[in-house]
Structures are given as structure tokens and as C-alpha cells.
Amino acid sequence: MDDLKQKYLDQIADAADEATLESIRLAAVGKKGEVALKMRELGKMTPEERQVAGPVLNALKDEINSALTAKKAGLADAALDARLREEWLDVTLPARGRPQGTIHPISQVSEEVTAIFAEMGFSVAEGPRIDTDWYNFDALNIPGHHPARAEMDTFYMHRAEGDNRPPHVLRTHTSPVQIRSMEKMGAPMRIICPGGVYRADYDQTHTPMFHQVEGLAIDKDISMAHLKWVLEEFVKAYFEVDGVDLRFRASHFPFTEPSAEVDIRCSWEGGTLKVGEGDDWLEILGSGMVHPKVLSAGGIDPEYWQGFAFGMGIDRIAMLKYGVPDLRAFFDSDLRWLRHYGFASLDQPNLHGGLSR
Ligand code: PHE
Fold it and tell me: Which of 64, 107, 209, 326 is most deeply buried (CB count within 10 A of its CB)?
């Protein structure tokens, strides 16, 4: 009897899970278990023998049962402990994982530019990238024979055979949006228009598709001085510095008179592009006072209104601010480049919180 008891108490102590415990219970105190079989033998015993063996067997059965109950509770506790150890949650973790994607520098810079001009009262206008040659050229005082058409390396859309209308063009600049905005809004107005433009050109600082932001302010008594002030304020805010060397060069555009191009001081030393130092200049924009013929084309009376306009290369100023020496890299879709130069998707540029952080 003692051997039997020891055997089952040992097995119970060693059991690692409830299933094992259940099979031990069946083998020991189940209906066909070893203790039950022994109890059946009581019938064959003499009354005296039975008086001794009966209580012993009952005590054995009780002992095994309470060992089973105790072990079962112990296993349940251990299982709960293990679950609690595994299923924990660090409530101090950030709510979201780090976003995988980044904002492309061109998008970032467009947002930065928009934020700065919004502060100066400019709203954002848009126009189509495929436009008529009237909006892209004629309305901007560039008639059919004008050499500027050839200089712009224009991409022309295909026309069906026998269709003799002038072809649409991929806009070569954002200036057609000047005309579209004049038609839509009239004077006075202050708009910028960021967007893609196209020219057949390809080298370290030119790609066939690139980005400009057009600016147009029309009011009474607007002068070149306003243009210069706005551009200087913009450049300081954009480069997040107190001053940057700008060079205003007299120039010529058919749609402005007078006209000026603006360069910014930079250095290309050692393959890195730095703004504000060195002896090189990078042209970043063309500008001037809107030509009276352009105002007329947009339905605005040049007798009463005048304005300034500028067209700035977004990619150029992105290269300068973020030190990207080759423009072509912007459009290579190289993931390593994008991860390096990209911006966190939840940071919105604004003048008060910091443009680029
Ligand atoms: N559209 C001109 C360009 O693409 C830039 C410009 C815009 C110049 C507005 C003057 C006024 O080069």
C-alpha cells in the first residue's frame, strides 16, 4: 500500500500539465484505476481483514485525490504566471510605429515655400501641366516667331494627322498660371503657383522635368522695390539665416519689363554644395514688373494696375538648402537617397515651429 501511495504521489509531483494529471487520476483513483481494483478485492476478504484494509484504502484514495487537487491548482497558478509574464504591454511606448515613408525634398520645399509666402498674404494657385501655346507663350508676349520659343526647348504634344491646330505643350514654366489667375481672380491679387514644368535639357543642374514656383502680385503702386523686399524676406526665411548674398542682374523676359535675374552665392567645393560661401553663383529665379501686354492678355487694365512676377526653381533652392550637388538624384527614386534626404511625414513646415527642423 505504501509503495502504491509513493508511486502516485511521485507521479503527481512530476506532472507538468493538466493532461498528465488527468491520466494519473484515471490510473489511480478512476473507476478502473488501481485503487478501485484494490477496493473490489475487499469483498473477498474476511470481515477482520476488511476492517483493517477498508479505512487504509479510503485514506489512500483521499490522499491521492487531495494531492491531485493541490497539484492542479499549482499548475493553474504557474500557467497564469507564465501568461502574465508573456502578455505584458508597455503603455509608455509611442502610439504609432515609425512611419516607413519619407517626404520627398521637393514636396518638403514646396510646403516650406508655401508657408513663407502664405505669411506674406499670397495664396496658392494651380494650372495644368499640359497647356495651350497661347497660355504658355502668346499671352506672355512670346509670339510665334519669338526666339524665346526656341530657347525654351519645348516639348510639343502629338497632334493627329490632318489636325492643323497648334499643338499643346508641356508647360515650359509656371508663368501661364499668371494668365489663368488673372482671368479667374482679377486685380488686386497675390498668388504663388508651385508645380512641375518641362524642358528638353539634361545635366547636373537640369532635368527634363523640374519644378518652379511662380509668384505674382498685382495692385496699385507696386514697384520693383516691393519685388526686391519680398524676395529678400523670402530667402532669409527659407534658408533660416539672417542674410544671404543675393545678386540682382538686369535681364530680359518678354513678359516682364524691367526684368532681373537673381543669383545666390554658393560653393561647390569637394562635391558639396554650400549656400552663402564661395565665389560661385547659382541662378535661382527670374523676375520683373509684369509687362502691360501680359496684364491685358489676362483681362486686367494696365492703366490702373501693375505688378511684379517671379519664377523660382524649387529644385535649385532645394539643392542649395539641403546640399544636394546633383539635381538628377532627385528623380532617380533611389530608396537609400530618399531615406537620407527625406523628411518625417508628420512634420508640417511652418514659420513659427521651424521650417525644416
Ligand atoms: N518664366 C521664367 C522662366 O521660366 C521666369 C520668370 C517668371 C521671369 C516670372 C520673370 C517673371 O525662366
Answer: 64
Q: Is residue 282 part of a domain?
A: yes
- Confidence band of 188 (pLDDT split at 50, 70, 90): very high
User: Does residue 94 belong to any structural domain of this protein?
Assistant: no
Gap from CA of 286 to ligand 1 centroid (Å) = 5
Sign of CA dihedral 329, 331, 336, 339: positive
**Can you tell me which atom of ligand 1 is nearest the CA of 212?**
4
State in Å: Cα 280 to ligand 1 middle. 22
Nearest 5°: phi and psi at 203? Answer: -160, -165
Same domain, 10 and 125: no
Same domain as 180, residue 59: no
| Judgement on whether residues 65 and 111 belong to the same structural domain of the protein | no
Q: Looking at the structure, do residues 285 and 319 belong to the same domain, yes or no? A: yes
Domain of 196? Answer: 105-344
Average pLDDT for residues 288-293, to the nearest whole number? 98
Q: Which residues contact 209 (CB under 8 A, 6 or more apart)?
A: 196, 197, 198, 331
Cα torsion 271, 273, 277, 283 to 10°: value is 120
User: Which pLDDT tens digit goes with each residue over 36-58?
Assistant: 888 888 888 888 888 888 888 89
Asked if residue 96 belongs to a domain, the reply is no
The residue among 205, 204, 142, 215 whose CA lies nearest residue 172 is 142
What per-residue confidence (pLDDT) applies to 237? 92
Whole-prediction pTM value?
0.71
Residues near ligand 1 with C-beta < 6 Å?
173, 175, 253, 256, 286-288, 309-311
pLDDT in tens, 226-282: 999 999 999 989 988 877 888 999 999 999 999 999 998 888 888 787 888 889 998
